[in-house]
Write a structure and sequence with these properties.
Blueprint lengths: L6 E6 L5 H13 L4 E5 L6 H11 L4 E9 L4 H7 L5 E6 L7 H8 L8 E2 L5 H13 L3 H30 L1
Parallel strand pairs: 1-2, 1-3, 3-4, 4-5
Helix pairs in contact: 1-5, 2-3, 5-6
The structure holds 5-O-phosphono-beta-D-ribofuranose (RP5).
Amino acid sequence: MENGKKKVAVIMGSDSDLPVVSKAINRLKAFGIPVEAHVMSAHRTPAAAMDFAWNAAANGFGVIIAAAGKAAHLAGVIAAHTILPVIGIPVKSSTLDGLDSLLSTVQMPSGIPVATVAIDGAENAAILAAQILAVNDPSLQAQLKTMKREMEAGVLEKDRRLSVELNG
Ligand code: RP5
């Protein structure tokens, strides 16, 4: 924990996932959330992944984001070994355009939930992690409200510009 703030763990199955996962890391850092990133694999380093998950709560983490591609069991394996909320990012890293990763991540059996975002949905994973931590963090709540207001203003501005261009 940094300054009493819970950390978010961002675990990726391979360093080849980093181009996708870095969007989550950057977004979390922009919120001022302490982040720790690791490469761990449900298949190649199963003991390390299990060990990390067992100890994550005691080590000051509040949420775990797990990104993996292909037969993407990482988020599920981590969720099996912790009661922290686990967010899965299915990575589009295969010849199947990420559908394999999506189904492997989202189709969890009852009792072991993984909150699965879209294929390569790293930004939403970070925002969801921030929303989970914000339940007990008023300053994070304020940042999330500001983000939504800015998003709304951005869309309204696009509509205004497009209307001028297309509707005269
Ligand atoms: C998964 O297999 C990883 O998460 C990655 O998306 C995919 C390919 O891994 P590499 O062969 O590039 O290491 O476990």
